[in-house]
Amino acid sequence: MNQAKTLACAALLALGLAQAAHAAYNVWTNEYSVSRQELETAIAPQFPRKLRYMDIFDVTLSNPRLGMDAANNRLTTVVDAQIANPLLLAKPVNAALTMSSGFRYDAASRSLRLDAPKVDNVDSQDLPPQYARQLTALGNATADQLLRDYAVYTFKPEQLEMNGKRFEPGKITVEKDAVKVEIKEQ
Asked: Which UniProt keywords apply (predicted)?
């Protein structure tokens, strides 16, 4: 009976910490779950975003739409892009960029960060297909500048400590509606 009370108290403590931090901790599987909604909230401040590429092109990114690519363990982000250069382009080029990124844990900052961003697809009705390679190169530079090492979630110290024991995030798995982060004892 005493063990059941201890387990119930630990579960309630974990739930309280998770609610304060806006990430759900599952005491049975030892993992935190960061929902798609939480990821959208974390990424939203990046948009709209104006970038300059090679001091030639002005790129404006807006309207991010997140997806979870569980099969490839990556987060996908589709953004509307407008590329302008009054000297080279008669009118701005509009495109939809589909970017994807993996995840990594940074122990120094206790944060879950985006890793290895890349452009998976460029869709534009404004440019002929032969310019897709250049537009993809521009998109990859943009993805790298915008998403590489961007912290989408930071663990609070108390989320990684319990009963005098320290824990560290392990395997990171992208699922249909959330990112799961395994928590292991150090």
From this structure: Signal
**Nearest C-alpha neighbor of 29 from the set 43, 14, 39:** 14
DSSP single-letter state for residue 9: H
pLDDT tens readout for residues 36-45: 999 898 888 8
Q: How far apart are CA 167 and CA 130, in angstroms?
A: 51
And the tokens for 13?
């403590």
Angle at 130 between CA 127 and CA 132, to 5 degrees: 65
Look up the CATH number of domain 35-185: 3.15.10.40
| Residue 112 CA to its chain's centroid (Å) | 8
CB 158 within 8 A of CB 145: no
pTM for this model (two decimals): 0.76
Q: How far apart are CA 147 and CA 167, in angstroms?
A: 27
Residue partners of 170: CB distance under 8 A and separation at least 6: 181, 182, 183, 184
Which whole number is the average pLDDT over 91-102? Answer: 91
Residue 164 token pair = 């005098």
Q: State whether residue 140 is helix, strand or coil.
A: helix
Q: 29: which residues sit within 8 A by CB, 6+ positions away?
A: none
Q: Which two tokens stand for residue 87?
A: 């000297």
Q: Is the pLDDT of residue 143 over 50?
A: yes
Distance CA 37, CA 68 (A): 11
> What SS3 class is residue 149?
coil
